[in-house]
Amino acid sequence: xxxxxxxxxxxxHKVDVPFGDIHVISLDAVFCHEITTPVAINxxxxxxxxxxxxxxxxxxxIDHVTPAKDSKTAMQGKILRNWAKRNKINDFFDxxxxxxxxxxxxxxxxxxxxxxxxxxxSHTCTHGAFGAxxxxxxxxxxxxxxxxxxxxxHYPESILIKINGELPAGVFAKDVxxxxxxxxxxxxxxxxxxxxxxxxxDQMSMESRMTLCNMAVEAGGTCGICAPDVTTVDYLWEFIHxxxxxxxxxxxxxxxFAADPDASYVDTIxxxxxxxxxxxxxxxxxxxxxxxxxxxxxxxxxxxxxxxTNGRIEDLRVAATIIEGHKIxxxxxxxxxxxxxxxxxxxxxxxxxxxxxxxxxxVTNPTCGACLGMSNGVLAEGEVCASTTNRNFxxxxxKGGMVHLMSPATAAASALTGYITNSNFYKSGGN
Amino acid sequence: MKNFNGKILFLDRSDINTDEIIxxxxxxxxxxxxxxxxxxxxxxxxGFEPARDIKPSSAIVTRANFGxxxxxxxxxxxxxxxxxxxxxxxxxxxxxxxxxxxxGMLAVELSPADLDCIFNKFGGKETTLTTDMEKKVLxxxxxDGNETISFEISDFDQALVEAGGWVGYAESRY
Lengths: 431, 174
Known about the structure:
heterodimer; A: five-stranded parallel β-sheet; 15 helices; B: alpha/beta; Aconitase, domain 4
């Protein structure tokens, strides 16, 4: 019997099988941020075990609230900063060099095909885009991961989702994943890995694959995963060129983590890309998804472009193309947060930041802030936000606020009109 | 082992998420105890008043996909510091469920039929839960009747409950 990507990775990292399908696996990387790590650090200190299994395999960033907004968030940063220093964790990204964890860690080359990664953050599934097994965990799993370099999981079952054909103009990775979540439901993939394949995934950039894998957790999935291919190798080449004599050799090596043709899946879903349209959410659950064309009367108070889902350079480029030469609606507050300093710099070089500013957007530093209602764009009661983020839970971006999830293209178009609007990229069929 | 007995708080809704259990604005706390006043603060559910209903409760009975959303262990911690160490549901989100057992707490899954039975018979009434970890039996007791329902947990989850959580379990083995 052949194996899925996740099964291959588990089998190459097995440490122990204490019970039934519980596999304790070794970790190639443990990622940390200032919200979920400090309690683990304090617990390790209290237990007299203030150490880490391998400082080179631990990466840490302050990203959720940065720069600190008050004494409490300053203390969270301080605990993480001092711990990183004590434990000689060199890859620690502090104010000025920090960005949203799931944007900055991949662009630093910390995610490789076949890796096992945990982080105390549910959107860790993003990194499956590289053919890695990456899962969000709680603080206790994180603590043991930091200390021992292991984590326990059920041996993974996978759902295969094949997206065949070509995406229509104006339909983006965000529309694809929101449509899939709408089909699966918010717990349709619980305890399962979602393996994305097909023509559309093959043609996607790494940024788009990260958008796709990022929201696997919104369907309950443990990890989203894409087979490593030439796009993966090209993205990583600057970090791996000393490990392989050529890109071809790297690709050949990484192919060991592609699924076997006779791999077994608990479910296979085939999607014809031609049938996909731009979509947005309409309720408080990410599986409540509708075509943008059915939501066009919905007024918005704020448009937010950023986050680990859609704050990367290709997202900013698409949004900037739409708003260039225009002003956002007077009644709309536009907020854009490039997800990392590298993305911010690139956007500056390409003139994208100026386009946003000329249109009336506020450009913030890279941070998770507004996505979870912590800073930099929190909603007031009764306000509506068109957002490129990943969660529309009641109160997510601020108590009493309503969030509509959508692609950067739809968000940008909505900023111009003041209500949820399809972008000019999209020409609906037949009209 | 923690205490898995006491008065039940009924939350008759599916997909209660981690933002409802403990809103992100309280994630700036660095001790579990500091979360105590904020449990379920943002849960809008008819008949539920956090200030009135949480204090006397030691168990939660709810529907499907409890704890979906964020990985924040602040969610089980907020329960734990309110002396609620057991949640009974049709299903749980993966990370939340693992976090419960990692803290030595108990996340029990029952069939929709069993939950219907419990909600129909006890919902809205003062009901006490008694958990027998050896026999794997839950006993529900109200003034006008009682019900006994057996449950299953995996050997691994049982080991975590007995070890008081994953740190204790892993420390001696890995």
